[in-house]
From TrEMBL, chain A:
Keywords: Oxidoreductase. CDD domains: TPP_PYR_PFOR_IOR-alpha_like (cd07034). It comes from Geomonas paludis. This is 3-methyl-2-oxobutanoate dehydrogenase subunit VorB. GO terms for molecular function: oxidoreductase activity. Gene3D superfamilies: 3.40.50.920, 3.40.50.970. Residues 247-339 form the Pyruvate:ferredoxin oxidoreductase core domain. InterPro entries: 2-oxoacid_oxidoreductase (IPR052368), PFOR_II (IPR033412), Pyrv_Fd/Flavodoxin_OxRdtase_N (IPR002880), THDP-binding (IPR029061), Transketo_C/PFOR_II (IPR009014).
TrEMBL record, chain B:
Gene3D superfamilies: Pyruvate-ferredoxin oxidoreductase, PFOR, domain III. It comes from the Bacteria. PANTHER family: 2-OXOGLUTARATE SYNTHASE SUBUNIT KORC. One of its GO terms (molecular function) is oxidoreductase activity, acting on the aldehyde or oxo group of donors. The gene is vorC. Residues 11-176 form the Pyruvate/ketoisovalerate oxidoreductase catalytic domain. The lineage of its organism: Bacteria, Pseudomonadati, Thermodesulfobacteriota, Desulfuromonadia, Geobacterales. Keywords: Oxidoreductase. InterPro entries: 2-oxoglutarate_synth_KorC, Pyrv/ketoisovalerate_OxRed_cat, Pyrv_flavodox_OxRed_cen. This is 2-oxoacid:acceptor oxidoreductase family protein.
Amino acid sequence: MSKRLFVKGNEAAAMGAVEAGCRYYFGYPITPQSDIPEYLSRELPPLNGEFIQAESEIGAINMLLGASATGARAMTSSSSPGISLKQEGISYMAGAELPGVIINISRSGPGLGGIDASQSDYFQCVKGGGHGGYHIPVLAPNSVQEMYDLTMHAFDLADLYRTPVMLLGDSVIGQMKEALIPNPRPVRELPAKGWAVRGKSGAEQRVVKSLFLGDGELEAHNWHLHAKYQVMKEKECISEEYETADARLIVAGFGSVSRIAHTAVTMARAEGMKVGLFRPVTLFPFPEQALAQAAARAGKVLVVELNTGQMVEDVRLSVGAAAQVSFYGRPPGAGSLPSPEELLEVIRKNYEETAR
Amino acid sequence: MRKDVLIAGFGGQGVLLAGNLLSYAAIDEGKNVSYFPAYGVEKRGGSATCTVVIADGAVGSPVVGQPSVLVVLNQASLERFGARVRPGGVLIVNSSLVDVSALGRTDIEIVSVPMNEIATDLGDPRMVNMVALGAYVALTDAVKLPSLAAALSQALPERNHKFIPANVKAIETGAEAARAKKEA
């Protein structure tokens, strides 16, 4: 086992990118993710890589598009308002089927909002923030270790499915420091990048584009993308369960709030309540089946989010009529993080209702 | 085992370094740890706080609502966080700067240590954070004192390694002061 390091979440994501073979980063500074470009500005040049502070977020996402078109592993990162600016580029990458990793250490909105931990961008990230009805895989780490591991996974997913992939965190996950084991990049068989544009040199012409004007061409492209999303739904769902086997109430939450809920569930168990935790790690594809099974066993799901209710819609779609779904939301802002004790109180109330 | 502490003071008192050092020591002891600094629109001289959770198993929440131990280095932090200490918990006070008489908590243990005086006597008032950390570890056994001393070389940049012996002394003196207070 390698030595355990003590690392900030943002740095762990940047370390994971380097380990995954990412050598090109394009970004524009914004709190609370600037540790990522800071780290990569220092670490990439000695590795023969390239760090570019772009003129804007829009510049950065289009540089990512360009680097990715050559087949290189490349990344950008930003935070909510900056991610809004990148949406056009993400849509173009999704349309042109270009891999690439986008880290979003989100802040609170709408508008300029604030810098505090928030999950108010679930819809934007998961439902396709740009135009054109695409999806991209969205990964939601809840620890420093996962910031590292899931960043590496994001690069593999991007290459496997020729798609942009987003890693979604917030200032809790990005700014906290925890032990990190810097695992080596997992060995995974990946398709050759026969589509990459690297200069023709006598070979057949390759074109990377999202413009399809031929009769029926764009419809076929959309069905092709749709089929890809169906494969992701079958093969790429990740979720984590804690104490769900005999639970009569399942708490569901992702990212930072799942950590708070974990402690609240432990406290509830200590009081004799049969409560469990379900955490989607992939937000797209959403782990519908695993959640449906856990929910059907328990009969009730309590969704907790740092917003006024977004993931709860996917939970309702997943569990259907098999379980009752209730919601507890803490919209973003300074002082808005719920404590484990506060969540315990909400759990108690919901649990008592199941007992009636 | 799961221990949590909220350390609070003003910017410049070394609150964040204290939290980092404690975390390094816990990791070296093979424990899991989460260090969460208050991340807001703070400025120099404004408040500085961090939460450290140390656990044998899963850390769980890095966010702590009712800390079992609160270390306060200045008056404003006592006023902001004093009511949040878990009943039965411990409040460690820098009595050089903090007057605890108006707090009105009888359900917690309060240990007052004149941290600024101790640090100044040892040669540098900036070591107030090390005195505080020594007191915390002596009262809670969250980590072993030698682990703190050993972790200094990781928590401090190399240019400051020459100050390690003085900091070790400050940690030990803070620990002794806290133990003496507890026995008294």
